[in-house]
Specification:
275 residues; alpha/beta; TIM Barrel; eight-stranded parallel barrel; 8 strands; 47% helix; 15% strand; binds zinc ion
């Protein structure tokens, strides 16, 4: 069942759990993500990033088709739409949520661009996520991990002015592999959760640690983006198996199995099973 993100995240916010948003870029990991959701009777968000699969209109349609066929509630999300063109392609392709990323612009320009796009997306029933503060790269974490945390007063103004549906916040996570130890600012999370009426999103979930992520899910985050950890689990499942002779035909099945099992782990960790 294909739904927009509000249909998933408002329930998660009311009941205090998080939904995994898994980065997919091919048919194997797409099917694996949906199978994980079906096994755990869980909703799921499928993230498609233009940099990982540039033909977002084609791949987006495949993702939607499989989402429609599934009994689970599934949102197909364009992750990190960096340009206006990316976001409009996402709408035309039928994504049910668009994440518009203008977090590197000055505050007022971020507001202006997000507000304009929200008006367009809402007119066709598509929800929008934006980012305030900036979730940087993990390999630069030791240097600038805390430079761009989300500011509470700015967040309140941002949500009011843009009418965005969900907000990605910078509370100490980073994208990709961390250099240094991630330190989550839970007090900031609590303040943001209490100050804002819309669901909050955590980018850079991979490498953050199960304990931190479970706590985020309990204490105010409703969508957790996962990419690196899932790919690593896929590779680990592959290399742990005997691939001699005709076993090599299982190449993609084994990658998908590792990917799926790790998603099921996160569904349980975020208390999303059965939801
Ligand atoms: Zn991200």
């Amino acid at each position: 069942m294909l739904v927009n993100m509000n249909e998933l995240l408002h329930k998660a916010k009311n009941e205090g759990y998080a939904i995994p948003a898994t980065n997919i870029d091919n048919e194997h990991n797409l099917r694996a993500a949906i199978a994980a959701a079906e096994n755990r009777k869980s909703p799921i968000i499928l993230n498609v990033t233009p940099t990982a699969n540039p033909d977002i209109e084609y791949f987006g349609r495949i993702a939607q088709d499989l989402a429609i066929r599934s009994p689970m509630k599934i949102c197909v999300n364009l992750d990190h739409g960096k340009t206006f063109s990316d976001c409009i392609h996402g709408l035309r392709a039928g994504f049910t949520n668009i994440m518009i990323d203008r977090s590197q612009l000055p505050f007022d320009e971020n507001v202006k661009e997000v507000k304009a796009f929200v008006a367009i997306a809402h007119s066709v029933g598509v929800t929008v996520e934006a980012e305030l503060g900036h979730v940087g790269l993990g390999d630069k974490y030791e240097h600038d991990g805390y430079n761009a945390l989300t500011q509470v007063e700015e967040a309140i103004r941002f949500v009011k002015e843009t009418q965005v549906d969900a907000l990605a916040v910078a509370i100490g996570t980073a994208h990709g592999v961390y250099k240094g130890k991630p330190e989550i600012r839970f007090e900031l999370l609590h303040t943001l959760r209490d100050a804002l009426s819309i669901p909050l999103v955590l980018h850079g979930g991979s490498g953050t640690g199960d304990e931190n992520l479970a706590r985020c899910a309990r204490e105010g985050i409703n969508k957790i983006n996962l990419s690196n950890d899932l790919k690593r689990a896929a590779i680990e499942n592959l290399v742990s198996k005997d691939l001699s002779g005709n076993e090599v035909y299982n190449l993609y099945l084994l990658l998908a199995e590792g990917f799926k099992n790790k998603i099921e782990h996160y569904i349980d960790l975020f208390d999303c099973s059965g939801k």
